[in-house]
UniProtKB/TrEMBL annotation, chain B:
Pfam families: CcmB. It comes from the Bacteria. InterPro entries: Cyt_c_biogenesis_CcmB, Cyt_c_CcmB_bac. The chain crosses the membrane at residues 50-69, 103-124, 136-155, 161-181, 193-215. It comes from Novosphingobium sediminis. It is a multi-pass membrane protein. Keywords: Cell inner membrane, Cell membrane, Cytochrome c-type biogenesis, Membrane, Transmembrane, Transmembrane helix, Transport. GO terms for biological process: cytochrome c biosynthetic process; cytochrome complex assembly. GO terms for molecular function: heme transmembrane transporter activity. Coiled coil: none annotated. This is Heme exporter protein B. One of its GO terms (cellular component) is plasma membrane. Required for the export of heme to the periplasm for the biogenesis of c-type cytochromes.
Amino acid sequence: MQPARLAAYDLACRRGDRLLFRGVGFELHQGDALQLAGPNGIGKSSLMRILAGLLRPYNGHVEHEGTLALADERPALDAHRPLGEALAFWREIDRAGEARADFGLEDLLDVPVRYLSTGQRKRAALARMAASGARIWLLDEPLNGLDAHWGASAQAAIEAHRALGGIAVIASHQPLQLQRLKKLALLEYLP
Amino acid sequence: MIRSLWAIFRRDLTLLLMGAPGRGGALLPLLFFLAVAMLYPFAVGPDAKLLARTGAGVIWVAALLAAILPLDRLVEPDLEAGFFDQWALRGIAEEGVLTLRIVAHWLSFGVPLMLAAPLAAGLLNLDGAQLWTVEVGLLLGTPGLAAIGVTIAALTAGLRAGAALGGLLAIPLTVPLLIFGAGSLQPGGEGGLLLLAASSLAALAIAPFAAAGAIRAGRE
């Protein structure tokens, strides 16, 4: 099992001419989970995209060992294709084998993605992430649209991922039932 | 990496050829191209000499406009759905993805136009030699049109009214291809084909980098 590590140093993010946060730093090792908390518009998603390397920070830098996977509000699944085919496209790119986590998608594999509900789409995006074999999971509001049952399943999948030495960063305003969960309240890093 | 790119290329080609709800497909530009070739004789009258003299130019104008039709679905839907972000996370360079998209776009509009050109030539009363020049010109010019199209699609993806802006941007950028392509049909204009090939190559060389830069800049 390759090592996993995610560290952020003195991150600041600017959107337009507004500084969202500054001085954000943390270090995560195998099995760690971090919750990014804070009200809407504080910069949780921007921080997520900085960690994913999709957005350049205004200041500071990010280091990571191990592959990254991001699940945000855009599932990157072809709306017109059946769910099974849309997921198979990413399986062919990731080639990481079958997902260990169960998101109850077996009955939906023939259904075109555009007919799926918000919660079902979310589960599909989480399944794609779980199947990607990535060591570091970046989850932006993973519980949005999920009912209590699948919310618990999603958290169980995160715990299973951590048990295998993975890292999870979760941006969520909802309380999470995860063991040894670190918290980072972005309100404390306002400029 | 190669297998990932192969999977992406197969998806691109299927989407661009067959289309999908909200994505059109290869049929629309083709029908548009033939419709222009069919309407032109109605508009200018059945004067065979006039048609033969101007028809090849009309084919080029029709090809250029047909290339603009699919612009708004070349990049925008994938950007919107998060595909480009997911590829970037997996370390697949935008340049590679967009090169494949140029090839897929060319296969789904350039090749059908070349196949439809004999029909258009018949409607416009072009002779065999002119048709041959048109076909060679399309073979040399449509890759450049595809490259410019993908670049503009990447530049305007995510903008409001991006589709309209894309069309407006494409017209001046594709004018050299039009001039050399249509010019090659004038008597003694064979040199136009070389210039056409040169412009096409220049567009192909720049496009993947310009389009990738546009996608990355759009993330900021």
